[in-house]
Amino acid sequence: MSSEQNIIVLVHWNGVLTNVDNEVKYSSFPNAVLFLNADVSYSTLCENVLSQISRDGLNEIKTIHGKFPFDTRDGVCASMPWPIHDEPSWIYFVQIASNVYDRLEVFIDATNRDVVIPLHEGPSRRRRNLMPSTLNQGPSMVHMDPSHEAVEDEDDPDYNNLSFSEEDSASNDSDDSHDSSWALPHNQEDPFVEPAYRVEDPIHVGRIYASFNELKKAVSIQTLKEYQAFENVSKRPTYWRAKCVHPEQCSWHIQAAQVKDTDSWKVKQYQPRHNCIPTYTRAKIDKLLTSKFIASEISSTIRIKPDYSIKLIMNDIHQKYNIRVGYKKAWYARILALEQRFGNWETSYNDLPNVLQAMAYTNPGSIIDIQSDNTNTQGTYEFKFAFWSIKAAIDGFNHCLPVVSIDGTHLYGKYKGHLLVAVAMNANREIYPLAFGVVDSENGASWKWFLQLLVTHIIPPDRNVCIISDRHAAIDYAFRNVEQLGTPQIQRRYCLRHIRSNFMTQFRSKQLKKLCWRAGSTPIVSEFHHYMQQIRGTNERAFKYLNDIPQEKWALCFDGGCRYGILTTNLSESFNNALKGCRTLPISALVRATFDKLVQLFAQRRTAGMMWQQAGYHFPDNIRKELMERWQQRPHTVVLPHNHYTGIYSVSVENATPVTVNLSRRVCDCGCWRMNGMPCVHAHSVCHFLNCSVDYLIPEVYKLSSYINAHSSDIMPFPNMNEWPQNEFILLPPKYSSRTSRAGRRQETRFPNEMDMRPRRRGQHD
């Protein structure tokens, strides 16, 4: 379609979208008609739609769907709802739909995020309180048990002494996938809405606040900015009066009363000026700058950034009030803010069985499990382990690469714990979350339990699968004690980056570090032995250290293709890093966040797969680009046929030593083909020489059909948790907490190693 042409877009909203018998229908007639250029951008579309829906008091677009045409197997033209959420999905929709329909139709789901309710008196307004989510029981002041004290901890996300070196991040790890969208639970309904006024605005007689807490916060903010302090004179259910802490020399005071039949409070009297001499002491300021006050200050940030670090909180409060707060107070404030947004930690553990059962109820075939310990009280148990894997992901794994990366990482909330994850890789070489576990401690028992569930319920018994992990003693224990992990169907491989890290701990040499990586990552056996001999010539003990590790466990050239070229556990580690925001949440909120993100991921990839299929592609985008790059290198090769019938050819690249390609066995002397199953540049050259397509040599697991099938199953929403039956028992949090009661920094539990060290940059005078 020419960019000079116009398109007619019929816009529907305030109705119900259905798809019956492959035909999109909407419950109302079009509300508006747009005349747009054919090359109009997605952002311009949204601006035009917003201008139309604003007539009905709507100001936020939640989703846009278009009526998308497709042909059924019978050749009948049908339609389906097409999600439009960015520039590519909008452009593709216009290209396809405009060739079939004279008028395009889009269906808008919109809302008003600024609903206000007038109060009975005064010009002020407040926003409507939204119903909290099923995980949130509303704001509450929580009793902080002494065993959950805050300390500066190297396991905490605020401990910034650890960072990967550039060599680690830029190494030959082809599997360093990262999806930052996993960091936050975006599509959870936000139960808190900003007030229609700013608490920081000046206080005056007649001003109305939505609650007593907001009134007191406004007074506290004003007082803190002036380095003053106040104290209560009288506080009754409907009346409050406060005065300066120096009443004998200062006339500052405020008086407020509750507005009848509302939760609002109105300022009745206010003397804003302090005529006393400020006698600033930290104790007086600290009395106002409480953890509860700081929690209210950071609540808006916590809602969108749950991993808001303690050090940033301390810095932001200092920037705003020029008052420094301690680490412990900031830690308590973050705990309170998280509880206000995502629910109480203790209640969250008790809600966990219901949350997992509800998820499995609407997604039959999902695997869930909770392990607990008995207590001295009947009907009360103490949390130990939790496991969940959604049916759609279990089914989709059959169409992913037969490789699973496992890893564990710390939880950063009120209670100590570890998140265990199992991550696969789909046909487009993207992260494919498979299973999750939360355990009280990362030890042999917890890993044995997690891997037992993984190999029994998630990994098909008739499929050969490679599990990549580090050499953690707990994982070693699990592999020795889970019977299925010892069968030929399961092959274990070590993360090469951890091998190199442990190697560097023993032998501190940059040269040995490079040789270790080269030996482990080369697909050619002769090169492996060459690098090992170089290591031997440098340090005999270093050679023996590596030689004592089974070669197939860490060296790519002896792998036999089990690990599909995936050298490290970067898949699971990157995924854990992406979940950092979720790892600060109470446990039930963590489960919901992983569920919501998996729903998002499946929906986005389902759309991408359909777009590629409609465009006529046979492979996902990343694979298609890789094939194109290798195909473009073929003009620099020379092919010599040896036997057409057995498929043997020799190929040389730019006068280099020729390599042998065997099409029948699908191997090449370069080792790259066997490494991950993808035809190497030499195989591409032979196919070009034979004037045939390379497509038939590519494994099914890399094809677009596998990508689509991996994300084809639906993930059904949670039921109404308010109607879900309550537990007949009480589940308590784990007894052991990472927040010890003694003051100061506790002994380090994580010692930095060479993976955490960043080379120091030389200054000009070094």
From TrEMBL:
Pfam families, alphabetized: MULE (PF10551)
Membrane-spanning residues: none
PROSITE patterns: ZF_SWIM
Region named Disordered: 126-188, 738-766
Composition-biased stretches (Acidic residues): 165-176
Highest taxon in the source lineage: Eukaryota
Name of the protein: SWIM-type domain-containing protein
Native species: Cuscuta epithymum
